[in-house]
Amino acid sequence: MQKILGQLATEIKIRPEQVQAAVSLLDGGATVPFIARYRKEVTGGLDDIQLRELEYRLGYLRELEERRATILKSISDQGKLTPDLQFAIDQAATKQDLEDLYLPFKPKRRTKGMISKEAGIEPLADALWANPALNPQDEAQAYLKPSDAIEGADFSTVGAVLDGVRDILSERWAEDASLIQALREWLWKEGMFTSRLASGKDENQAEVAKFRDYFDYSEPIGRVPSHRALAVFRGRALEFLDAKLSLPEPEALNASATNLTATAAAQAASALAEGRIALHLEWSHRARPADDLIRKTIVWTWRVKLSLSLERDLFTRLREEAEKVAIKVFADNLRDLLLAAPAGPRVVLGLDPGIRTGVKVAVVDETGKLVETSTVYPHEPRRDWDGSLHTLNKL
């Protein structure tokens, strides 16, 4: 908890004792408006904006620490918690980072890679990856199994054994936290958020036509304005639009291949992601016997294991950021509405009643600009009635 309190003080730029006081009040059931209005002397004058941020981040950081403890216990129970892994988990700053690190150890359904490991094919996968000069066809002979030896799989042919190698390596790479994070950030910077009219939908139908601007829409995902992102997600939820994350096209493709088919263009763009995986793995095709198998495994890793899951991650991120912006816009508009002159362009003096803490007074001019504030104490314990009247008369 001390770690959380220290982080909150740093993030919100307030004193640790202010954080401690606010957290105690929140944990005691007090609401943000109540604390902002009636407990300023306890929190050192924290306003509602600071308290809202503190409340949100407090909840997030507590959930983060609970999840961190759960993940550490799960991996420790499996006997796989190394000092380096524990350090990485301890340093993870977001829930997404934690889940990326936990992915290889997360209990999951029986996958093709697991079945291949049960069949004893992992040593072959390790050998071919470590030394691509080995001939996969020859090496696989030693791993053939009778067709009924492994439940749910048949490794009686060389092709099936090499598919097992592919499944083992692709699942291993798809659970590499540093690779996933690198690809996710690259796609956020360079990927394209696209939408098209859903198949079978009539663009002239009144409800569908509202989304006409998004029938052929494309924009860098990291720069999509919130209103457009939310409109596309709304159209997708109504099944009027198909939304997807498209990879950036290679510059050479943009410059010279204007007549290329959509499939060929998609394959060329996909090659960019596959190239980044190869670069991360520090592998390149050198015409060695196992290089074709490794290249196909990298392609499989991207197209089958990573592309859709990363699209989901980035769509979630885009939606969350768009909703934050939208809420701020609505809040600003509501604030302007509530602060608009209720009786036209005239000077207004407002009173906020209080007993022990006094009556707060504010004056705004005919444009709504704040020009003066004060506090008067006509009630107990001061009973300064004459002084209060004098101040009000002066204002």
Q: In angstroms, what is the radius of gyration? A: 31 Å
Structural category is mainly alpha
The CATH topology of the largest domain is Tex N-terminal region-like
Tell me, briefly, the overall form: elongated
Poorly predicted ranges (pLDDT <50, ≥5 residues)?
Answer: none
Instruction: Compute the number of structural domains.
Output: 3
Number of distinct beta strands: 6
Please count the helical segments.
18
In sequence order, what are the helices and strands, one letter per element?
HHHHHHHHHHHHEHEHEHHHEEEH
The pLDDT mean sits at 91
Q: Going across the major beta sheet, what is the strand order?
A: 2-1-3
**Helix content class:** 55-70%
Quote the distance from N terminus to C terminus: 48 Å
Plain-language structure description:
With 395 residues, the protein is mainly alpha-helical. The chain folds into three domains: 2-105, Arc Repressor Mutant, subunit A (Orthogonal Bundle), CATH 1.10.10; 109-191 and 247-340, Tex N-terminal region-like (Orthogonal Bundle); 348-394, Nucleotidyltransferase, domain 5. The chain contains 18 helices and six strands. It has a three-stranded antiparallel β-sheet with strand order 2-1-3. Strands 4-5-6 form a three-stranded antiparallel β-sheet, with helices on one face. The protein is elongated and about 105 Å long. The model has no long low-confidence stretch (mean pLDDT 91).
